Amino acid sequence: MKLEFRCNCPFTSALDILGDKWMLVIVKQILIEGKETFKDFTESEEAIATNILSAKLKLLEEAGIITKTKKPGNRKSNLYLLTDKGLALTPLLVELATWSDKYLRDLHPTLQNEKGMDQLRNDKSAFAHILVEKYREKQAALG
Known about the structure:
Layout: H1 10-18, H2 23-31, H3 38-42, H4 50-62, E1 66-71, E2 74-82, H5 84-87, H6 90-103, H7 115-122, H8 124-142
Antiparallel strand pairs: 1-2
Helix pairs in contact: 6-8, 7-8
Protein name: Helix-turn-helix transcriptional regulator
InterPro entries: HTH_HxlR (IPR002577), WH-like_DNA-bd_sf (IPR036388), WH_DNA-bd_sf (IPR036390)
GO molecular function: DNA binding
């Protein structure tokens, strides 16, 4: 799959990679939900079709947002991990969650409203930092 860009605009170019409805969902699943394997993704509540998931994982890998490696102790399973480029999307995910919390509750009243949302509302920067640090600790534990 070849990455193609419509024009030279930085905003449009970012959307050429991330503007699909699944791309940031997959990044969120890795960063926040701890999804790592193809099976993990297929069992998520978002219910992405396997053929679409395969294509999106390949595109994210090609863009350098994730890496694919073999799972330690199980050489048959692939492990999908965020790169530094992928982790750099954390503030964007936090901003999207903040916007959704503020502007979509009237349209979607059952949006999550747990403890983490209070933390997000009170200090977005600290919330993003915690997400990244937890992810880095998890990666370090993998070896």
